[in-house]
Amino acid sequence: MASQERVKAVTKGTGFWRCPRPATYTPGTYELLRAMMKESKLTNFQQRHIMDTMKRGDTLPLQCSPTSSQRVLPSKQPASAIYLPPILAARPHLRPARVCQAGGAYSREPFKPQATRDLEKEKRRLQNIFATGKDSEEQKRKPPPVRQEVPAPELDRFEELVKEIQDRKEFLADMEALGQAREYRGIILA
C-alpha cells in the first residue's frame, strides 16, 4: 500500500536528469502558426494564449480552453467493473474462456446429413441394368469424336504485301478527299 501512495505520474521532459529546456521557435514557425491560426476558427483568447506560450519558449499546448485561462482537466475514465488478471489486462486481444463460451464460440453446428448423389437417377440406372442387362450411362459417357478442322490456306507473303500496299493507297486516297493527305503521305511512302 505504501509503495502505491508514493508513485506519481512524471510528466515528459522532467525528472532528475531531464531538465525541461525552453523551446526556440524560428521566425518562419511564428509566421506559419499565425497563418494557421487565421485560417482556423480560434477565438482571440486561444490565439493570444498560443502566442504567449511561444514567446515564453514553452511547448505548444495540446488543448486550450475556449474562453478562460482555466486549465482543462482530462476526464477520468471509470474503473472497469470486471477484474482481469494482469496477464490478460496487458493483452486486450485475449478474452477469458467464460466470455468465449458465453458468445457461443465453442458450440458446434448440428450435423445434417445430405445425399451425396441423386438417388432417383441411381434407381433408374439400376432398373435399366436389370431390364436390359446394359448400362445406358456407359453409352452416353463416350465422348463424341473430335472433328478435325480444315486449316485455312496460308497466304503467300507476296500477296500479303500487295494487300497492305493496296490498303495504304486506299487510306491515302481517303485522306486526300478529307484534305489531310499532307500529314500522312510521308509516313505511307516511308
From TrEMBL:
Signal sequence, renumbered to the chain: none
Domain of life: Eukaryota
Region of interest: Disordered: 129-154
Name under which the protein is recorded: EVG1 protein
Species name: Crocuta crocuta (Spotted hyena)
